[in-house]
Design a protein that fits this description.
The chain is mainly α and 170 residues long. It has one domain (2-169). It has seven helices and five strands; from the N terminus they run ααβααββββααα. A hairpin with a 2-residue loop joins β3 and β4 (88-90).
């Protein structure tokens, strides 16, 4: 049934191309560090579409796959609905809301995100959805969740070590 959803999305979304996520693409996403990853558990972030294209490149995710989510997001009247850039409030921000990426990608790979519909906090929701997406990526890759976690931890350690070297060279 889970794979039926992704097939259904491909038929319904004729104007939005859906990427194929197989074993190779799943492993590529699982090999990304937590700091530089296409899928991450934030329900508060809006990023430039170019960032998502960069992060999604190892899995074959291109502009044509995600450009329908790119939009102008406006600040609201209250503090919790205000968008901040570098600590300063802004009227609007153009980009893709990470919650939209999580919902879309969960559907693409056939992850059961409905189990999280009861969660009201956007950060808690995003963290839980991210865990479900990673579990589904592990299934697609044919590895255990423990192996997937180990891959992400190793990639994160390597990312941090490389980042430290880059900062020391500056």
């Amino acid at each position: 049934m889970i794979t039926d959803l992704s097939k259904f999305l491909r038929k319904v979304n004729k104007e939005v191309e859906i990427p194929e996520i197989g074993k190779e693409q799943a492993l590529a996403l699982l090999n990304q560090s937590f700091e530089d990853s296409f899928i991450f558990g934030s329900g508060h972030d809006i990023y430039n579409m170019k960032d998502y294209i960069t992060w999604g490149k190892p899995a074959g995710i291109k502009k044509k796959h995600i450009q329908h989510m790119n939009q102008r997001h406006y600040s609201g009247d209250g503090y919790k609905s205000t968008i901040f850039v570098n600590g300063a409030p802004v009227e609007y921000l153009e980009g893709i809301d990470n919650k939209d990426i999580l919902s879309w990608f969960g559907g693409v790979i056939g992850a059961d995100l409905a189990q999280h519909s009861w969660i009201s906090g956007r950060g808690t929701w995003a963290r839980n959805v991210t865990a479900t997406i990673y579990e589904r990526l592990c299934e697609i890759a044919g590895i255990t969740a423990e192996e997937g976690n180990s891959m992400k931890a190793k990639a994160t350690d390597e990312y941090k070590a490389n980042r430290k070297l880059e900062l020391e060279e500056e």
